[in-house]
Amino acid sequence: MYKYLLFSLLLFCSSPIFSQQKDQIVGKWLNATGEAHIQIYATGGKYFGKIAWMKTPNDPDGKPRLDKNNPDNSLMKNPILGLVILKNFVFDDDIWQGGSIYDPKTGKTYSCKISLQGSEKLNVRGFVGFSMLGRTEIWTRIK
């Protein structure tokens, strides 16, 4: 009996249904301010997100907006469009955690966790260091 139960559990965890569950955040999301679309994707068993669209991708001179607030001087000339802002998330018990979120407006990086609210809303919670202090934004799936 135990062998059957263990086999069934292993079969379920390796099934496409389980894989689909952890990949539910893959896709495009509109950020809380409506200024950007974030493309979330999986690679190497981890989840990342890059800025795929911006309401205002260029500065007033018509040049691409740059990551000028980045604390790393060598990265300040990179365009914000295409910038990877979500890094190294792993799926664990209905939460994507262990990753970070970068805010190009301030140049700061925060610890972060992500959870789904239904299938169309994403709770993105950034934390200051390892404290409980943080802020949650709700992103909306783009179809």
The appropriate CATH architecture is: Beta Barrel
Task: Tell me the β content.
Answer: 35-45%
Q: Strand order within the widest sheet?
A: 1-2-3-4-5-6-7-8
The amount of helix comes to 10-25%
Secondary structure class reads mainly beta
Provide a count of the helices.
Answer: 2
- Mean pLDDT, to the nearest integer, reads 88
Number of domains: 1
CATH fold-level topology? Lipocalin
Largest sheet: 8 strands, antiparallel, barrel
What order do the helices and strands follow?
HHEEEEEEEE
Distance between the termini: 45 Å
* Approximate shape: globular
Radius of gyration, CA atoms, in whole angstroms: 18 Å
Point out poorly predicted stretches.
4-19
Strand segment count:
8
Q: Class, according to the CATH hierarchy?
A: Mainly Beta
What does this entry look like structurally?
With 143 residues, this protein is mainly beta. The chain has one domain (25-141): Lipocalin (Beta Barrel), CATH 2.40.128.520. The chain has 2 helices and 8 strands; from the N terminus they run ααββββββββ. It has an 8-stranded antiparallel barrel with strand order 1-2-3-4-5-6-7-8. Strand 5 (95-103) and strand 6 form a beta hairpin. The longest helix is centred in the first third of the chain and has 12 residues, at 2-13. The chain is globular and about 45 Å long. Residues 4-19 have low confidence and may be disordered.
